[in-house]
Amino acid sequence: MSHNIILDGHVGLKPDLQNITVLGSTGSIGKSTLDVVARHPDKYQIYALTAYQQDELLFEQCTRFKPRFAVMLDEQAYQRLALRISTAGLKTEVLCGVAALEQVSAAAEVNAVMAAIVGAAGLRPTLAAARAGKRILLANKETLVMAGRIFMDAIRQSGSVLLPIDSEHNAIFQALPDQYSGDLSASGVSKILLTASGGPFRNTSLADLQQVTPDQACAHPNWRMGRKISVDSATMMNKGLEVIEAHWLFNAPADAIQVVVHPQSVIHSMVQYVDGSVLAQLGNPDMRTPIAYGLAYPARINAGVAPLDLFKIARLDFVAPDFERFPCLMLAYRALRAGGTAPALMNAANEVAVDAFLTKRIAFLDIPRLIGDVLDKLPHVAVNVLDDVLLADAQARVAAQDWIARL
Predict the structure, then answer these.
(1) Domain range spanning residue 313?
(2) What does pTM read for this prediction?
(3) Which of 136, 165, 194 delimits the end of a domain?
(4) What is the domain-level CATH number for residue 395?
(5) What phi and psi values does residue 152 have, to the nearest 5 degrees?
(6) Is the CB of residue 172 less than 8 Å from the CB of residue 252?
(7) Strands across the sheet with 18-23, in order?
(8) Where are the beta strands (DSSP E) in 73-171?
(9) To which H or E segment does residue 354 belong?
(10) How far apart are the first and last CA of the chain?
(11) Count of other CB atoms within 10 angstroms of residue 356
(12) pLDDT tens for each residue of 118-146
């Protein structure tokens, strides 16, 4: 896919640099993106930074990177940030709301958008970037899980460049043929091998899982992530979402995507070819590597990540996933095969369930029970327009809250 880079001589912007909008700049992916950008001031500048309600951190980021715009979703946080920006005499314009997120994602000056907002909230601005033909560095799983067909159609129609940032999908992207046509068999690919760390509970018994606390679930052995995605990793729903992502990114049927538990998180994923070859991408578990790859593609730049020491690692282990211990993974395969709004229903139910677990309203093992119940009770319909997805999302959230209320 081709992409025409548009540069603009906006006051405060240097026309010879790439302008980056970071959606979700206060999260782990957003902060890692800014770390990489700061290493290459001769290549990139920040056009816009956005956050939900962490106004103090966003103000610090604005002070350092001096973006043209800062966007808050929370109204009170917006008021606080606007006052801070004004008092400090910064030229950054502060905006509020979803429409503002869409504005800074689709602006003519923007070359690339890092889509790192966690959850369904990232759908609209990421879709706006796709429709505007931007280079999209996709770290928001829910965009593809909820509205994969609509999003991929927008990418094709606009000529946007889509680069996966999840370490697993980035690895697959690197291991596929350079001129991948979107047809696995025609490209000589037999299977996508999606690696999973197994999270903090890969060896925990079902009986012990019932007593798991939020802090235990968020203590990932390999990655430092936000609390929501950490719980998703602990339930392996995160891997289930990635299975659905892989389906849309690489036009791969469910049966051609195999999850492989790899505790060391050194091999980030693999591609199996019909001739018996398996190509893998390896690296230390640091999100700055795929972020730098996405920013500079097809070139490569320093990400600030230490090189992999194979002698220190010494061994690599692989085991099959335990679907009994981690039913969320099976629920994701079920939703993918059902198609239509089923993945959106599953995703919304999961977001409600994870929030309820983190606030100690339900137990860890209630998460898959809640999701399964929502999938059983609500109809799955075809997705033709975005409103189909948004309606399913809303219905699933109501049904999930009702499930919690009945406990």
Answers:
(1) 171-284+308-326
(2) 0.90
(3) 165
(4) 1.10.1740.10
(5) -65, -35
(6) no
(7) 93-96, 69-72, 44-51, 18-23, 112-115, 135-138, 161-164
(8) 93-96, 112-115, 135-138, 161-164
(9) helix 342-358
(10) 50
(11) 20
(12) 877 899 999 999 999 999 999 988 899 99
